Amino acid sequence: MLPDGAKGPGLFFVLPCLDKLRKVDLRTVTFDVPPQEVLTKDSVTVAVDAVVYYRIYNPIVAVTNVEDADRSTRLLAATTLRNVLGTKSLSEILSEREAISNSMQVRDS
């Protein structure tokens, strides 16, 4: 890690034997959570999928704390979807879609 932090756009001198270059996309990224079957609280199996929007706000934390931030985000989204829907009944899922969506939103600065 550089003493003065991450570098922005432009040309930089990198020594391959000493330095390791990691590119981090700071734009909003979208991906689909693949369809999966979830068992609800009332033991009904439902097929669900989702769309996730995320953006990395702190590239230094994304590079130093996580091996692959994109893959970790995908796994976290699928796990969170299963966990949240597993605590709801089918009628709650159908009637509270917006509230469930809001409860799954995370903002970590």
UniProtKB/TrEMBL annotation:
<dbReference type="InterPro" id="IPR001972">
    <property type="entry name" value="Stomatin_HflK_fam"/>
</dbReference>
<protein>
    <recommendedName>
        <fullName>Band 7 domain-containing protein</fullName>
    </recommendedName>
</protein>
<dbReference type="GO" id="GO:0009898">
    <property type="term" value="C:cytoplasmic side of plasma membrane"/>
</dbReference>
<comment type="similarity">
    <text>Belongs to the band 7/mec-2 family.</text>
</comment>
<dbReference type="InterPro" id="IPR001107">
    <property type="entry name" value="Band_7"/>
</dbReference>
<feature type="domain" description="Band 7">
    <location>
        <begin position="2"/>
        <end position="109"/>
    </location>
</feature>
<dbReference type="InterPro" id="IPR043202">
    <property type="entry name" value="Band-7_stomatin-like"/>
</dbReference>
<dbReference type="Pfam" id="PF01145">
    <property type="entry name" value="Band_7"/>
</dbReference>
<dbReference type="InterPro" id="IPR036013">
    <property type="entry name" value="Band_7/SPFH_dom_sf"/>
</dbReference>
